[in-house]
Amino acid sequence: MAPPVSLWAFALNLCIGVAHCYFSIPLKLYTGKFNLSADVDLTPLRRVALTADASGLSLASDPTGTVNFLDMVNNLQGDSGRGYYIEMSIGTPGQKLNILVDTGSSNFAVAAAPHPFITHYFNTALSSTYQSVGRSVAVRYTQGNWEGELGLDLVSIPKGPNGTIIINIAAILSSEGFFLPGVNWQGILGLAYPMLARPDSSVDPFFNSLVQQLRIPDIFSLQMCGAGLSASSTADPAGGSLIMGGAEPALYQGSVWYTPIIEEWYYQVEVLKLEVGDQNLNLDCREYNMDKAIVDSGTTLLRLPVNVFNAVVEAITRSSLIQEFSSGFWDGTKLACWLKGETPWRFFPKLSIYLRATNTSQSFRITILPQLYIQPIMDVDGTLDCFRFGVSSSANGLVIGATVMEGFYVVFDRAQRRLGFALSSCAVSDGVALSEIAGPFSAADVASDCSRGALKEPLMWVISYALMAVCALVLVILLLLLILPCRRRDHSGEITDESSLVRHRIK
Ligand SMILES: *[C@@H]1O[C@H](CO)[C@@H](O)[C@H](O)[C@H]1NC(C)=O
Ligand SMILES: *[C@@H]1O[C@H](CO)[C@@H](O)[C@H](O)[C@H]1NC(C)=O
Ligand SMILES: *[C@@H]1O[C@H](CO)[C@@H](O)[C@H](O)[C@H]1NC(C)=O
User: Fold this and answer.
1) Which of 112, 218, 316, 339 is the right S-S partner for 415, CB 3.0 to 4.6 Å?
2) Ligand 1, closest atom to CA 328?
3) What's the CA gap between 232 and 248, in Å, rounded?
């Protein structure tokens, strides 16, 4: 019986594995632990400094004239490594908490109990307007998870649209690997669609409530200004802007290029092509969207499906002048270090992602310079400047995370079901832009639908349940196989029709 039993164990593992992979939300923040390697080379230093472009700052507002976007500029703090957060006032009287901005999930959740890594939490007992809904809720992310209870309360955003709204709050009572050492936020603002809300899509996400109650346009836009800054520096967080209700022209240059939102759950987009330097990776475009391609501010790195990741690493190795990199650099377990005053960026190529344009027979290209994906890490060693690789491999789809988003002003135009990309006014170093946008290009050379055939998460639920059912059935049959022959030996005269059926099958 050994082979069937191990087969069953394998099937069960598969089921659990599938469940584990596909039920998670891709929050993945850098935890700040690195191994040091000393690849030393000689190149002139070019420090990245943040230059906020204040010239041409114009007063902008939405068509209804009720929201002043300029009041929201610089309302974020943080960096790509530990996330970007906004201050909110929760409950009555208002309790001030910092809330992580995450476009890859849909729950508004705040710490409601002490935790060693956070300085304060939302005390529901001290809010006269807090109402428990009496339902428990749990969310699992790529990194970490939490459990708590659902409630309702009033929230206002000091540097957001005017007004107080009543919203669903998940009060986090216990968590694992969710709050990280050194983070300065105590909650998470999931800005994606109701489909991802837990326990189910009837729990209105924060932004849906905001749009309904304050009657602002169903658009928000995000500028994250940590480009090229150290991912582990404790000094002066870089900051950014979350503009609710529209887009602020002072935060970008040139025009906004739009790509359709393919499905409204995550912000899922369609990637048509990847280039390393001038070299097209030339993979089947479905590989780039396997099993989805999403834009997620709650993920630190650019994450690529394994095949794509391997092709990118190979192409970078080929085109960079540095051949002697330990594999630990590419898999994120090691840093590459140069003597202080040197910098490696000129050795690395640009990375370009082609996105489907709103005219579906066209595409446009967003490009990041190596300053965005070869990221300085501070405080490792006094004599070395160390860098990490800002790209990693992924088992659950392509994620355009902070590494890429920091180059762009990203407009989440939910009203017109599209995402806009423009050159961010803060992705500039010494007057040189760290990102590029170009287009339109013909999309005639790729399939007309690069996301078709990719398995969607709800479908994976169904498949995993089906697999579980098959596992259970196999278990029952195995038990019958094990038990019934014994019973037959014990009571040799009393073989039922069922057991003889089994017996004949064994023969
Ligand atoms: C550093 O590398 C060593 C050996 O490769 C490993 O044992 C150790 O766990 C690593 N440390 C971290 C923080 O990754
Ligand atoms: C909120 O209202 C004040 C006073 O009317 C106004 O000055 C401010 O611009 C408004 N803020 C926003 C974000 O619209
Ligand atoms: C879409 O792009 C194609 C190919 O470039 C062009 O021929 C067509 O006119 C465009 N359609 C619209 C509506 O702009």
Assistant:
1) 218
2) 5
3) 29
User: What are the structure tokens assigned to 428, written together?
Assistant: 């500039």
- Are 198 and 187 in contact, with CB atoms under 8 Å apart? no
Q: How far is CA 401 from CA 297, 315, 330, 408, in A?
A: 5, 21, 17, 11
Output the six-digit token pair for 49.
Answer: 């400094």
Tokens of 44: 């002139």
- Distance of alpha carbon 73 from alpha carbon 76, whole angstroms: 8
Q: How many helices (H) does the chain have, and how many strands (E)? A: 9, 30
Q: What is the 3-state secondary structure (H, E, C) of 99-111?
A: EEEECCCCCEEEE
Query: For 246-257, what is the HEC assignment?
Result: CCCHHHEEEEEE
Active-site residue identified among 79, 102, 153, 291: 102
Shortest-distance Cα residue to atom 7 of ligand 1: 35
Q: Model confidence over 150-203: pLDDT tens digits?
A: 999 999 999 999 999 999 999 999 999 899 888 899 999 999 999 999 999 999
Q: Is 35 in the pocket of ligand 1 (CB under 6 A)?
A: yes
Its CATH class, for the domain covering 31-67+218-455, is mainly beta
CA of 413 to the centre of ligand 3 (A): 22
Pairing of the two strands 187-190 and 108-111: antiparallel
User: Which atom of ligand 2 approaches the CA of 160 most closely?
Assistant: 13
What is the helix (H) or strand (E) element at residue 335, kind and residue range? strand 334-339
What is the rounded CA–CA span in Å between residue 274 and residue 282?
8
Instruction: Report pLDDT digits (tens) over 17-40.
Output: 443 333 345 554 444 444 333 222
pLDDT of 267-325, one tens digit each? Answer: 999 999 999 999 999 999 999 999 899 999 999 899 999 999 999 999 998 887 666 66
Dihedral pair phi/psi, residue 190, rounded to 5°:
-80, 115
pTM of the model: 0.78
Give me ligand 1 centre to Cα 331, in Å.
Answer: 13
DSSP 95: E
Give Dmax over CA atoms of the chain in angstroms. Answer: 96
Euclidean distance between CA atoms 401 and 412, whole angstroms: 14
Which residue has tokens 């610089």?
74
Domain ranges of the chain: 2-16+458-506, 31-67+218-455
Question: Is the bond preceding 3 in cis, omega lying within 30 degrees of 0?
Answer: no
Beta strands in 340-415 (DSSP E): 351-356, 362-368, 374-377, 384-389, 391-394, 398-400, 408-413
Burial class (CB in 10 A: 0-12, 13-18, 19+), 148: buried
- How far apart, in whole angstroms, are the C-alpha atoms of residue 346 and residue 358? 34
For the record, the structure tokens of 394 come out as: 């992924």
State in Å: Cα 69 to ligand 2 middle. 9
Atom of ligand 3 nearest to the CA of 361: 2
353, two tokens:
């992602």
Q: Using an 8 Å Cβ cutoff, are 48 and 115 in contact? A: no
How far does residue 43's CA lie from ligand 1's centre (Å)? 28
